[in-house]
Design goal:
The chain is of the alpha/beta class. It contains 9 helices and 7 strands; from the N terminus they run βαβαβαβαβααβαααβ. The chain is 46% helix and 14% strand. α1 packs across α9 and α4 packs parallel to α6. The longest helix is centred in the middle third of the chain and has 29 residues.
């Protein structure tokens, strides 16, 4: 639907590649002005250029409050405001429990959970001030339900995002702002293909109700729905998108 998000501005974090890139491309195709943000400045610029449709590239480190403040200042200058926030940026580790130390734990929590808070704080403050409502969509993970090994800090952070969206929905509903989480299963993204997780597709597929390999576009489709007015009566929910691997 080329016009379902016409007139809206959307920020997608971690959008230089993979799921974030697919989400940015889909929202732009739906008519939104998309802010492609990533810690990788060159990657975000390349993605925005390839997406076209007026997409803007603004680099930021979501775990750094000053970087996020600069991000939103530039959004205000270049786009005028924000209607949709997609919290996608994350570090996806592969670290056995016996190798998890405090530095690793803090790094994953700082980016994956605290970074989501920092960006959401800035975005929702501006949404409320504008008085037009808004959408907050945060990418969690079905590893929270599965308790996937070698990802303890990641699973903890992604579970925190689910709880955060539930609480945020309660507090911001009165302002017309919805907050939902999406939990992808194993997705054949650039990051996964370059990691040990790439060896898990065969096993994961045996657990899925629908066979095949998850693609970034599968997640982008769901985010597009949640960003639109079609989802206006949905908030505080977690949509699991993993071909039925986890059934709950």
């Amino acid at each position: 639907m080329a016009d379902r998000l016409a007139g809206k501005t959307a920020l997608v974090t971690g959008a230089a590649q993979g799921i974030g890139r697919a989400i940015a491309e889909r929202l732009a195709g739906d008519g939104a002005t998309v802010i492609v943000s990533d810690i990788n400045a060159a990657g975000s610029q390349a993605a925005a250029s390839e997406i076209g449709r007026g997409a803007l590239a603004i680099a930021a480190d979501i775990s750094d409050p000053s970087s996020v403040a600069a991000l939103f200042k530039e959004i205000e200058t270049r786009a005028g405001g924000l209607d949709i926030l997609v919290n996608n940026a994350a570090i996806v580790p592969f670290v056995p429990w016996d190798e998890v130390d405090l530095d690793h734990w803090r790094r994953i929590i700082d980016v994956n959970l605290t970074g989501t808070f920092i960006v959401t704080r800035a975005a929702t403050d501006r949404m409320r001030a504008a008085g037009k409502g808004g959408r907050v969509i945060s990418i969690s993970s079905n590893t929270f339900f599965a308790g996937t090994p070698n990802m303890a800090a990641y699973v903890a952070a992604k579970g925190g995002i689910i709880g955060f969206m539930r609480a945020l929905a309660t507090e911001l509903g009165q302002h017309g702002i919805t907050a939902n989480a999406v939990t992808p299963g194993l997705i054949e993204s650039d990051g996964v293909k370059a990691s040990p997780h790439n060896e898990s597709f065969g096993f994961v597929e045996t657990l899925q109700a629908v066979k095949g390999r998850g693609q970034p576009e599968h997640i982008a489709d769901v985010v597009s729905f949640l960003a639109s007015d079609d989802s206006r009566w949905i908030t505080g929910q977690t949509l699991n998108v993993d071909a039925g691997m986890i059934r709950h």
